[in-house]
């Protein structure tokens, strides 16, 4: 393992897309290009098969191929975190076991996304996952997609579980995020990440250890520099960099509010870069030629700005 998780994993951990071929299979060379791109950009690790990776949309064959290709490409240089969220416990455990055998460094678990598991049921689910995997576990708060939030009492209980090493909050509620930061300060080494990149600067200024930022796989240097500026408390620089991150969100992710539009925008931008195709899991389609041209223009403008400013 490339990280022991005895101390927080600080920095930017992009949630990678799952590069697909037109026939729906994993594009191994594209995974390698994408990993190299973010490693050169200074990221602290990668998270695969999460929301941006369309993890729950893929069958086991695609999931395993993505784990295998990513760990191979990373080669121990950065930690690889694998999303194992599923409706069935056996599916989460099976993917966790495969990830451990493939050389991944940690697994990431959100509540089961169909029947809500709350209170003692969710705690029981986490206990069973902990008992069934040898890898460190991150809890993942994503209530907009799985319906059930990670409650503060569950997070406080998690601090007493050595196998749980961190928390990713994609709830978008900064009030709740501050409560999570306060609750987790009692355990040294516990990592807390912010998910929505629009809140990255604010979150790190107040103590978050980094962000799981989708746009960082397109513009890794931009997000890494925003993190570093916030970590050292350089508020004027945070404001300037944050404005550019807001532009990424506004002009690349689309305005529909649907998660699929964010993923489509990222994949379109990565296609513009020549890193991977913009094929999505069924039933979601690619971007249009018009959308590719528009996003290509935005990518070019932001690249020029980053080159001159970062």
Relevant terms:
310 residues, alpha/beta, TIM Barrel, 8-stranded parallel sheet, 12 helices, 8 strands, globular
Structural notes for this entry:
The mean pLDDT is 95. An eight-stranded parallel β-sheet has the order 1-8-7-6-5-4-3-2. It has helices at residues 28-40, 60-74, 89-102, 119-132, 143-146, 152-158, 174-184, 200-205, 220-231, 235-251, 259-273, 289-309; strands at 11-12, 46-48, 80-83, 106-109, 137-141, 164-169, 191-194, 210-211. Helices cover 48% and strands 10% of the residues. α9 (220-231) runs antiparallel to α10. It has a single domain (11-239), classed as TIM Barrel (Alpha-Beta Barrel). The chain is α/β, with parallel strands linked by helices and 310 residues long. The two termini are 31 Å apart. The protein is globular and about 50 Å long. β4 (106-109), α4 and β5 (137-141) form a beta-alpha-beta unit. The relative contact order is 0.14.
